[in-house]
Structures are given as C-alpha cells and as structure tokens.
C-alpha cells in the first residue's frame, strides 16, 4: 500500500510537472498573431507573383494568339489559384479582407454581362436586366437608366461601372472568374467531361477573329488581369509591416485570436462545406461549381482546406518551396488542452485526406461536374467526405474557442446545412 501511494504521488508529481512544462511552452498570443500575419503576407505575395505571371501570359496571348499562348495563359491562371485559395481563411475574421474579396473572387457570375453566350443561357430577367449585356460587343449601352461610354474597356470601367452593376451580385465584372471565363468560355458539357472550349481565334485579328470583337475581348482580358494585379498589390501592402490589416489583427490579442478562429470556422462550415460543396450536390447543378469554366473546382476546394490547416499549424509552404512558420495556434491550444490540440490536428488531417481523395479522382478524369450528377453515388461520397470532414472539424474549432476563453463566435452558416428544406423553397 505504501509503495502504491509512493507510485501515485510520483505520477501526480510527473503530471503536475508536465502541466507546468506545457504552460511554460505556450507561445504568447502576440507571437501567434505575428506568425498569422507573416503567413498572410507570404500568401498574398505568392498570389501577386503568380498573378503577374498570368499578366505576362495574357499579354503574350494578346500579342500572338495561338493554341500555345492560350494554353500558357490557362496554365498561369490555374497556378495562380493555388496560393490565392489558401488566403481565403483570412476572410470573415478580417473585415479588410472580406470587404475586398468580392473584387477578386466573387462567384457565381452572369457571364453574359461580359461576352457572348450560348442561346441556352437565356436573356435578361427581373433579377438581372444586365444578364446578357455583352459589354465586349457594345461600345455604348444603357445601365441603370444612364448611357455608358465603353468605347475603351479599362480597369476603371470594370471596377467602377460594371462590378455589381445595378446592385446585382451576379454582375461580376472583375477578378479571377471573369478572367477564367475569358480564357475558357462557357462550359456547355453539363455533367459530362470537359471544361469550356474557347478558341484562341477569339483573340485573333481580322478575318481570323471568331466570336466577334476580338480587339475588345483582348482589352477586357488585359484590363481584368491588370486590375487583379493591382488589387493583390494593395492587399499585400495591408499585411506588410506597417499595413492596416497587420496592425489591426496584432493590436488586440484576444480580438486577433478571435479573428483567426472566425476565419477557420466560417470558411470550414458555412462557406466551403455549405455554399461551395453541399449546396451544389443538393441541387445537382454543375453551375454551382466554384471554378465552373475551367473545371478546377476540386483544386479550389482542396487549397481552401489546406489554408485552414496551415493557419492552425502556423506553417505555410510557399510556391518556391520555402517555408514560413512560427508560433502557432496549435501550440497555444496544446498548452491549454493537449488532447484538444491532438483532436483538432487529427480532424484537419481527416478533412485534407477527404479533399485529397476528391482532388485525386478529379485529376484522374472523374470531373467534379460528374460528381454532382444526381444518382452518382461515387461522386456524392467523394464530395460528402469533404463536407463531413469540414463540418466535423468546425465542432472542434468551437471547442478551441471555448478552451481559449475568447468571445463566443457565430460562424457563417448555410441553409444547405442548417435548413435544407429552405434550399428548395
């Protein structure tokens, strides 16, 4: 009995010393926030660098339209999505990002606002009178009762006149998805394999021009790409030393930690699991794809998930292979509740495995369009694997919120998860 008491006392002492060690190993909240801001700066720097690569490829396409230059521009667009999607975890918790994001990544869009569309697309509607405005074909048009001079398509025309014209969110004139449409064109394959099939001759000169107005289409593509670069330059500056976003998130430690968790939870739950994945599956609608013209949606979902994971771990691998890392939210949680940190990390890994399986299937030829088709059990299982992982990890994020003692957070929701019947009303 004496020996048992001694052993028990020794174990209690060891556990107590372990708890003290954990507490002493805890990073400061200030250090965690510095890492968070450093990773944001690196992600936006990578987004800008790849957008400049896209800008150069677009210029080459316009100067010499060919199958090769169009393919190069498409490849540059796809590469630019990898770092950008990993920045989306900075939305929701950071107002400066969320207020800006619609300029660069708004979707879905009524592409008839921009260029020609197939007859099956339909015409203007009460919800959007400008749904088939076709700015590229019309150097002058009426919008909101006013005549607009669009004889030259400029970044200012796109940003100040066309973006969300008439207050309609579907009037997306700027950002990645406007550029995507101009490179790929509409995807008319429904649930079948294949992305948009725009020809390089849509940018050709003279009689070789298809689709009409090739010079204006080139103007639009160049203006949209130049605007994307300038928008990313602005956001990068906000996260650099002395930038407003960095200053805001690091000025109040508790508010900063809340911002990290808000971004993680809202992207995980309402935005990605709900609006981007579950909703499209419920509607069986390929138009609900995030990157619907290029069939790149599986990659966008994957890198959104990866962005959530690398913010929690405080470690981001840059496009050039270098790593930005530092004091992490994971270490802060582990010092408070090691089991919860293990749970959180395991949930994030499970989600990435599910998103990775979906990505691998799509890369192998099983298009995300096809996964969305009604009755496609394999596709539904792949998408729901990601949805379930994202929802499950959100529950652990909620536990992290409680463990760290920050203010209760109302994460973004989605009818597709919270009130499925409302989706069909």
List keywords for this structure.
single chain, 425 residues, disordered N terminus
Structure description:
This protein is globular. The protein contains 15 helices and 4 strands. Helices cover 61% and strands 3% of the residues. β1 (140-143) and β2 (146-149) form a beta hairpin. It has helices at residues 2-25, 29-63, 67-85, 95-105, 155-162, 176-184, 214-239, 244-251, 253-283, 297-313, 329-336, 338-363, 368-371, 377-404, 415-418, and strands at 140-143, 146-149, 315-317, 323-325. Mean pLDDT is 93; it is low at 1-21. The N and C termini lie far apart (70 Å). Strands 1-2 form a two-stranded antiparallel ribbon. A two-stranded antiparallel sheet has the order 3-4. The protein is mainly alpha-helical. α4 (95-105) runs antiparallel to α7.
How many strands in all?
4
- Individual helix count: 15
* Mean of all residue-level pLDDT scores: 93
Helical content (DSSP H or I, runs of 4+): 55-70%
Order of helices and strands: HHHHEEHHHHHHEEHHHHH
Major beta sheet, strand line-up: 1-2
Cα shape: globular
Q: How far is it from the N-terminal to the C-terminal residue, by CA?
A: 70 Å
Query: Strand fraction band?
Result: under 5%
Largest sheet: 2 strands, antiparallel
Q: How much is the radius of gyration in Å?
A: 24 Å
The secondary structure category is mainly alpha
Low-pLDDT runs: 1-21
């Amino acid at each position: 009995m004496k020996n048992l008491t001694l052993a028990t006392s020794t174990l209690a002492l060891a556990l107590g010393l372990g708890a003290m060690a954990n507490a002493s190993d805890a990073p400061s909240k200030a250090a965690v926030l510095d890492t968070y801001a450093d990773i944001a700066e690196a992600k936006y720097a990578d987004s800008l660098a790849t957008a400049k690569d896209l800008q150069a490829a677009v210029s080459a396409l316009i100067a010499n339209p060919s199958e090769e230059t169009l393919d190069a521009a498409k490849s540059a667009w796809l590469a630019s999505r990898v770092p950008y999607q990993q920045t989306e975890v900075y939305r929701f918790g950071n107002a400066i990002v969320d207020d800006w994001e619609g300029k660069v990544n708004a979707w879905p869009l009524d592409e008839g606002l921009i260029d020609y569309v197939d007859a099956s697309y339909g015409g203007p509607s009460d919800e959007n009178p400008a749904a088939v405005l076709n700015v590229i074909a019309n150097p002058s048009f009426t919008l909101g009762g006013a005549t607009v001079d669009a004889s030259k398509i400029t970044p200012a025309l796109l940003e100040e006149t066309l973006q969300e014209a008439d207050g309609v969110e579907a009037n997306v004139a700027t950002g990645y998805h406007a550029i995507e449409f101009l490179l790929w064109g509409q995807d008319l394959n429904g649930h079948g394999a294949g992305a948009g099939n725009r020809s390089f001759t849509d940018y050709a000169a003279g009689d070789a021009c298809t689709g009409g107005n090739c010079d204006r289409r080139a103007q639009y593509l160049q203006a949209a790409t130049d605007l994307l670069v300038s928008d990313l330059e602005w956001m990068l500056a906000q996260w650099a030393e002395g930038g407003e976003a960095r200053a805001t998130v690091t000025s109040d430690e508790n508010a900063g930690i809340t911002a990290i968790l808000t971004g993680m939870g809202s992207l995980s739950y309402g935005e990605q699991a709900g609006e981007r994945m579950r909703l499209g599956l419920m509607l069986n609608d390929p138009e609900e794809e995030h990157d619907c013209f290029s069939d790149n949606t599986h990659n966008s979902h994957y890198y959104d998930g990866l962005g959530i994971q690398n913010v929690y771990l405080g470690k981001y691998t840059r496009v050039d292979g270098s790593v930005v890392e530092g004091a992490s939210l994971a270490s802060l949680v582990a010092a408070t509740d090691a089991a919860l940190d293990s749970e959180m990390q395991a949930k994030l890994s499970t989600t990435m495995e599910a998103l990775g399986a979906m990505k691998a299937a799509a890369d192998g030829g099983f298009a995300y369009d096809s996964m969305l088709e009604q009755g496609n059990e394999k596709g539904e299982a792949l998408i729901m694997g990601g949805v379930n992982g994202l929802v499950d990890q959100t529950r652990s994020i909620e536990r992290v919120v409680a463990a760290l003692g920050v203010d209760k957070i109302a994460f973004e929701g989605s009818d597709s998860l919270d009130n499925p019947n409302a989706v069909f009303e």
